[in-house]
Each structure stands twice: as structure tokens, then as C-alpha cells.
């Protein structure tokens, strides 16, 4: 589903990803952990084509992100190609990022109608299913400012799913929330993990959540994967001293 092949990303002299290689199979739930600044968010942003890479190739569903096929040749990706790749990926950010001038229903149906070309009635029917799933059926007409942070984040999750993505990227989705609002958001994500086969890439400091939903944990340091494995192994018996130190600090 996703392959990073010798990916280099730098901001000025700061090499953030240093010939990074990893693969994520369809249906995998992978949690990225590691110290702040180790490149986790950059990986998600590269997948969303919010950043350009400086070397290597990012593959999504067998196609390179930065290039497209023209006959037997690879040429730099057109905006149309990028839009198509982005459609298969949903992302939920730390700060909700709902459209502030639209109500909840409009937030959920805007892209399905205008990007996927769905009929309004179909988009609304799907939105209602998703709002039921995230426990917000009574908030269709509410505007984002009338919702708590936790409710806004559940709308953002529903909005990402409304595009029927193959891949869901979750970037610290609970870290801006008051503690009492975190559990509801994590419950929704647990449910998605249990009831769908969406491939998930998760950046989180919620280690119990990571343990519950992911089948693999990748520990990053300075733009490289220094250790990876099933959560039970990484969390209870890490090999690397740097992983142990990091976990001691966050657990
Ligand atoms: P993490 O998510 O692991 O905390 P990030 O991917 O956010 O790490 O950041 C990795 C490094 O890239 C940091 O050193 C950060 O300062 C730098 N960085 C991220 N985005 C930018 C940017 N837009 N401009 C300059 N430096 C950036």
C-alpha cells in the first residue's frame, strides 16, 4: 500500500529523513513513535503531498507519488495525478481543521460531492452513517464553533472517511484535546480499526491506544527507523537503548 524507498527530505541543512526505507501492507496499522523532531509528521505530510521530497521515491498503491506513468516512461506528476493519489488518503490533524463556515453535514459532503462527483442525496446518506458511527447524529446542523474539541475531532474523522480512503493518516489527533475528551475520540478510532480494513498510519503519544490498534510499531530517531516490531515486543522488550529511554519518558 505504501513504500518509502531511500527517501530523503531536508529543510535547508536539516536532513529530516535520511534515506528512509519502509513498507506498509494493505490493512496494516502502524504506529510511528520517537522523539519530537524525529520526522514522524513529515512522513505523513509527504504522503499527503503537502511537502516535496529531495530524494528517493514514495510509492502509494504501486504508483510513485512524485511521478506518473506516460506509456513506459515516468514523468513528473501533474496536479491531476496528485489529486487522484490524495483521494485515496485521508488525514486527520492535531487541530481538527474543519471548514469553519460550513455546518457538520456540509463539512462531510463538500468533497464527496465536488471532488468525487457524488449525488448530494448519496453523500448525505453516507455522512449520516458516519455521524452515527462517531456518535454525533444530532449535530448535522451544528457549526464547528458550537462543538467541543472532541466532537470536532470526531467530525474530522468522519469527514476523512467520507472520501472512502484506502489509507488513514492520524497525526497526534488527541494531543490538542482536554483529557476528558480523549477517550471518546480513541474509542471511535478503535472501532474503525475493528470494523474496516483501512490501512492506518498513526502518530500518537497514547501508547495504550497504539498497543490496542496497531500491529506494528516503528521507532524513529533522527529520520531513521531504529527499531520496529509488534507492539507487545517494542513496548515490553525493546532492543535499542534509545527506544527504552524514549518509552521510559512517555509511559
Ligand atoms: P516529529 O513529527 O517527529 O516531531 P517533524 O516531522 O515534525 O518531527 O519534524 C522533523 C524536523 O523537521 C524537525 O527538526 C523540524 O524542525 C523540521 N521541520 C518540519 N517542518 C518544517 C518546515 N516546514 N520548515 C523547516 N523545518 C521543518
From TrEMBL:
Key word Nucleotide-binding present: yes
PANTHER family: AMINO ACID IMPORT ATP-BINDING PROTEIN (PTHR43166), GLUTAMATE_ASPARTATE IMPORT ATP-BINDING PROTEIN GLTL (PTHR43166:SF9)
MF terms in GO: ATP binding
Residue stretches spanning the membrane: none
InterPro entries to which the protein is assigned, alphabetical: AAA+_ATPase, ABC_ATPase_HisP-typ, ABC_transporter-like_ATP-bd, ABC_transporter-like_CS, Ectoine_EhuA, MetN_ABC_transporter-like, P-loop_NTPase
Native species: Rhodococcus artemisiae
One Pfam family of this chain: ABC_tran
Keywords from the UniProt entry: Amino-acid transport, ATP-binding, Cell membrane, Membrane, Nucleotide-binding, Transport
Name under which the protein is recorded: Ectoine/hydroxyectoine ABC transporter ATP-binding protein EhuA
Family: Belongs to the ABC transporter superfamily.
Domain of life: Bacteria
Topological relation to the membrane, as annotated: Peripheral membrane protein
PROSITE patterns, per database record: ABC_TRANSPORTER_1, ABC_TRANSPORTER_2
Record-annotated ABC transporter domain positions: 2-247
Localization, UniProt: Cell membrane
